Amino acid sequence: MLLRVLFGGEQKYVKLSDLTFDAFLKEVCLKFNIPEGRQDLKVYDQSDTEVDVDVFEEIVNETPGTFRVMLSNKEDPGAVLSSSSSSVTSDDTVILNFTMCDQSEEEATAEGSQPKRPCHVNYEAQALIEQILTTKPGGEHIMQEYARTKCLTDATRRQMINILTAAMTEAHGSSPPKSIRVMYAQGIVALFPYLQDPFSKHGYEHYYDPESGSGYLAWRLRTIQRKTSEERVASSRRSPKSGGPGHGQSRIFTADKVLSDEEVEAAIAVLKHSADDDTVREKMKATFHYRHSMVNDEKKASNVFSVFPRFLDTPGLIRQIEQDFKLLFGEGTANKFLEKWPTSLKSKAIRESHGLVPTTELLALLRNAELAAEADNGWDSDMSAILLLLHLLPPSAQGRKRPGKMSASQAVDHLIRFLKVGTSVQQHLDKITQRTQPYLLAQGSIQSSIHAFFIVIDNYAIPCKATCSVGALDELFKAHYVFGTSYSAPLTNFFTFLQTTVYNIDVGETKETPRVAELRARMLH
Questions:
Q1: ∠ CA(106), CA(337), CA(293), 5° rounding?
Q2: 121, 249, 434, 458: which has the fewest Cβ within 10 Å?
Q3: Strand-pair partners of 44
Q4: CA–CA separation, 455 vs 465, rounded Å?
Q5: What is the pTM of this model?
């Protein structure tokens, strides 16, 4: 077993063939020229609990982490125990950092936990990143923050990327080889395993993805080197991933039977005149294949509401969106957001939002999201938390030729708008001057007390079955797939996160920004 040891500012590997306490102390003494046989060596685990010969092997096997070895005749161990977060700089301090594989997938499954990523640690890359961060100004703060919280704030992550890309360009020039960029990305997640993205192929693609050339490291390098127009053209020729809703995304479905053209016409005629819910549900299911082909044909998609006007009749018929979505993806996928939001997703969105820049609007959303009672001003608890998730996944820049980057606060209008009771929904629709992507229209006396939700699409207002914020957002997301419409540009990060991380649709096939992958890594660990 290889153990990495830092002593007196010098870092070396120690090879340990005999996993015993005495053998460990002997090898440390030999490596760093410490007089062998000293009786004042003390060993502490990562919780600052003293480790002795009786438990050393068990601690190493069961609790991988960082050990501290000290010469107790020069420092009082108790002082170290009472200040575990402080930086120890004495030459008499040895920090032992060793890396071991996580539990196997079979063991994790047997225990009922989520299997961890297989252990393929690049020790060379890990040592490189650790060496840079321990020698460059600001690096020690990054390592201390991760040790304390098992994650990095946005500001600390940016600082880390700046330090690492500066070191990379210093050693390899302004355009480092792809292998070097991959090595740095591998080193980050090897040194900080909780920053891995469990849904990507290798876990480090949000720092550098060699297939697309994207990621935090790549973006910082582009800023440093100011890429030429030829490089931008070459980048634009890469084949983009195309998962998610939109025209042309034909999918396998689970309808029992595909009707002939005559049977479709007969079923549509029944739908236009029947008021019986069971009959409507049956005919909508029977015509699903025809409707799915229709919404994915750009020439026919705009006619879906004239052919199937029952979508607009009554809130009860919003269940047809739910039915079509289940035919596309199955009941398990259809229920994921409603299951995950109250049990984990909401609380994690609130927790992560505490690390954002505390603007007046953000603080108001946090206050309402954490309220158990109805808010006097602003949205209810669930919608406030949903908008916090939007602030965690703000719009990406749209390029130089388009308007500047939109803020998360500005993007809220693309997700939901409030309409006071007594105001006509039709008047709201009449004021729409250009086609927009689907959004929620919430009607109520105040924002925290909504009586009805509508999905506004193509100047139509579809009544939602749900009367709560969570159910309405679930229906809005599903409407994108049922009606074959792409996400609104300012909400792409927000909906892509829900699509891949929550509903698990087109995972690995959908183009994601590093911000989406980074937030997923934070919230799933």
A1: 105
A2: 434
A3: 50, 68
A4: 10
A5: 0.64
